[in-house]
From TrEMBL:
This is 4-hydroxy-tetrahydrodipicolinate reductase. Keywords: Amino-acid biosynthesis, Cytoplasm, Diaminopimelate biosynthesis, Lysine biosynthesis, NAD, NADP, Oxidoreductase. NADP(+) binds at residue 37. Pfam families: DapB_C, DapB_N. It comes from Claveliimonas bilis. The gene is dapB_2. The active site is at 155 (proton donor/acceptor), 159 (proton donor). Residues 129-263 form the Dihydrodipicolinate reductase C-terminal domain.
């Protein structure tokens, strides 16, 4: 399958390019960078620090290269992602998007796009994070109404959105298991006098140094607690998962797919 990577100089785009370059089932055909970058026109292998030239260009115009690909992987910015999904729909190309920080209206664009293209949106492409999500669903279905649920998530100092898209997805999964909506029960941090309200999900976001990603969900009871935690040591697990998502989409019919489909969860 032929692949285009959006944002090949970013922390995720770089790793996705490196992983895809080593896969026998993938051929990189272009990298697409934001306009005005000084590396436009150079080789994708150099830009993504693959260690060798790939004889593939980095361009700033997706329209100029999109017809050469089967699937696009986009882990860029939410502004760029809006342009990418529109272009993918126009050219009927499959899209994997792992960018986060979207409003509900912006998220709807991906749902709408699925009527025309194979569309896979994943706030987190790690295999183990998504297995953790399954565990959270099981636990919450059993004890959600009894437990005090708190989410602690940690990321690097450059993380733009808070809480993380992954922790929001975790909250949505648990809220759904309790028959509720996350917007109705989420509490973001605490200050001053704020006793805990039963049935809520608490969020706490830490941003420091170069912490890659860490999520812990606490189920608190009187005299005991259950913790479910995922730590990533670097971002390679997300890059490998993103490439697995792209491989899954190749040849699929239009529709909205999730990483659960990829992992058969």
């Amino acid at each position: 399958m032929k692949l285009i990577v959006i944002g090949p100089r970013g922390k995720m785009g770089k790793l996705i390019t490196q992983v895809a370059a080593e896969r026998e089932d993938m051929e990189l055909v272009a990298g697409v960078a934001p306009r005005g970058r000084d590396y436009i026109g150079t080789d994708l292998g150099q830009v993504a620090m693959v260690g060798r030239n790939l004889n593939v260009p980095v361009v700033d115009d997706l329209e100029s290269v999109i017809d050469s690909c089967d699937v696009i992987i986009d882990f860029s910015t939410k502004e760029m992602a809006m342009e990418v999904v529109d272009c993918a729909v126009r050219h009927k190309k499959a899209l994997v998007c792992g960018t986060t920080g979207f409003s509900e209206e912006e998220k709807k664009k991906f749902q709408d796009a699925a009527a025309h293209i194979p569309m896979l949106y994943a706030a987190n492409t790690s295999k183990l994070v998504n297995i953790m999500n399954k565990l959270l669903e099981i636990v919450t279905s059993s004890v959600g109404d009894e437990a005090d649920i708190e989410i602690l998530e940690m990321h690097d100092q450059w993380k733009k959105d808070a809480p993380s898209g992954t922790s929001k997805e975790m909250g949505e999964i648990m809220a759904q298991a309790m028959g509720k909506k996350l917007d109705d029960i989420a509490v973001y941090g605490r200050h001053g006098s704020s006793p805990r309200e039963k049935g809520t999900i608490g969020y706490h976001s830490l941003r420091a140094g170069n912490i890659p990603s860490s999520h812990t969900v606490y189920f608190g009871f009187m005299g005991e607690r259950l913790e479910i935690t995922h730590h990533s040591y670097n971002w390679e697990c997300f890059a490998r998962g993103a490439c697995d998502c792209a491989a899954y989409l190749a040849g699929k019919e239009p529709g909205f797919y999730t990483i659960k489909d990829v992992l058969n969860l």
